[in-house]
Every structure is written in structure tokens, then in C-alpha cells.
Specification:
244 residues; alpha/beta; Rossmann fold; 15% strand
């Protein structure tokens, strides 16, 4: 059996610490990432760059070409609600292409699939339904838990108006964050079964990284110990599901 997660789905509210976590993992030596955190070389799939491209394309269509916007309103909301689901379908498609090009991908790499979902746009229940069966068979879910107030605080702090497209420096206006992400369905979904989240008939294991005290802004020993412990728990749950 492999000694790494083939797929890790990373979820949590905006500014919960997902991007900081991935940046930490990205800069680890390969052997330490594998031995300490059960992860191989990384393939990162994130829906934010896809979403931001829609904003940029719509602005160009409207201001440069005199054409109607395709995806978003001028104030930055999706024209069609199910575009949130299209983003998940796009992530699944990118995984399919990576697997096509490297059939034994999971033996050497961990695919990190990152996204946030609030109840207003269907929540995680709706999002997970748009992942593929191939992902559900291999995945584990790593949820970074922060309350809405912490998401709001960190979202304000990290936003750099000169780099709104940046993974580490993008942010949302307060009103948009409240509308889209104040209500989340994660805890209700997770409470339905401690064994895992049901996705396409698969029981996908999960573990929760408690970041209420914000250990991801200034990474250090507390962050690393908590990350190692949370991933160790998730690893045992994932292995049990594979052998059960």
C-alpha cells in the first residue's frame, strides 16, 4: 500500500489558512513531506485562479470588446448559480488530465484540491456531488476550521488591492464575505457520520484542523505539531477505509 495520500481535498472558509498551509507544504523537502505528513510531490488544483480568470475575461469583454459579460455581474457575483458547480467540475477535469498523463500519479504525488463553499452557493454537500467518482475513491478531506469572525478578520488583513489575483493576498469585501461564507454547512455534513463524508457511494474520511487561535499566520512549532497530528489521524482513517 502507498505511504502517501493520493488526493487531499483542502476546505475551509476564506482566509482560514488553506493557502498558507499549501505554501508551507510546497517548500518542504520531498523526504520530510512524505515521512512526516504522508504527502508526495505536489499537484495543486485550486478553483480561485479559474474564478479570477472569469472576472478578468468579463471585464475585458465589457470594456475592450463591447460584449456582454459571460460569467459575472459588474459587482462581482456569478450570473448563474451553478457556475459554482462548474468550478468543481473543472477541478475534476484537471485531475482526470493529470491522471491521464501520469497513470501512477498517486504512487509519487499527492493531488491537493482546494476550494471554499458557503451555504449560499450550495455548500460542501452540493460541491462534493460534483467531484468525480475517481476522486472520491482516492480522497481524504482536510478541513481547516475557523469561525466566521476569524475569516473576516484575516480576509481584511491579507487583502492587497495591488494584487487581487494573488493566492496569498486576495480578499473579498465584507458584504460579499458575509453573503457567501458566513453560513457554512460543513459541521452539519460532518456530523452525519464520523466515519466520513458520503460522496458517490464512497465514505471519504475527514479530519478537522482547529485554527481558531490562528497558527497559520506565523508558522511555527505549534502549527507543525498540530498539522502532523491532524494528518496522522486522517492517515489512519484513510488507511482503515482502504483495508476495511
Amino acid at each position: 500500500m502507498t505511504d502517501i495520500f493520493p488526493i487531499l481535498i483542502v476546505n475551509g472558509r476564506p482566509a482560514a489558512g488553506k493557502s498558507e498551509l499549501l505554501d508551507f507544504l510546497r517548500h518542504l523537502p520531498d523526504d520530510r513531506r512524505r515521512d512526516q505528513f504522508h504527502m508526495g510531490r505536489l499537484v495543486e488544483l485550486d478553483d480561485f485562479p479559474m474564478l479570477w480568470t472569469w472576472f478578468e475575461e468579463d471585464a475585458l469583454l465589457e470594456t475592450k470588446l463591447g460584449r456582454p459579460r459571460l460569467h459575472t455581474t459588474p459587482d462581482g457575483y456569478f450570473i448563474h448559480h451553478d457556475l459554482w458547480h462548474l468550478l468543481i467540475e473543472r477541478l475534476a477535469l484537471e485531475y482526470d488530465k493529470a491522471l491521464r498523463d501520469t497513470p501512477d500519479l498517486g504512487a509519487t504525488h499527492t493531488v491537493l484540491i482546494e476550494f471554499s463553499r458557503g451555504s449560499e452557493h450550495g455548500g460542501y454537500r452540493a460541491a462534493y456531488a460534483h467531484l468525480s467518482e475517481a476522486i472520491a475513491r482516492q480522497a481524504a478531506i482536510f478541513y481547516i476550521d475557523v469561525p466566521y469572525e476569524e475569516s473576516l478578520r484575516k480576509n481584511r488583513r491579507r487583502f492587497n488591492p495591488d494584487r487581487p489575483d494573488s493566492i496569498l493576498e486576495h480578499g473579498l469585501p465584507d458584504s460579499k464575505l458575509e453573503r457567501l461564507y458566513k453560513a457554512v454547512d460543513w459541521h452539519d455534513l460532518a456530523a452525519e457520520s464520523l466515519d466520513g463524508i458520503a460522496i458517490h457511494g464512497q465514505c471519504v474520511p475527514f479530519a478537522v484542523f482547529d485554527n481558531h487561535d490562528d497558527v497559520t499566520t506565523r508558522l511555527g512549532p505549534v502549527f507543525e505539531a498540530r498539522l502532523e497530528a491532524t494528518l496522522a489521524t486522517l492517515w489512519e482513517r484513510w488507511r482503515a477505509g482502504r483495508t476495511g
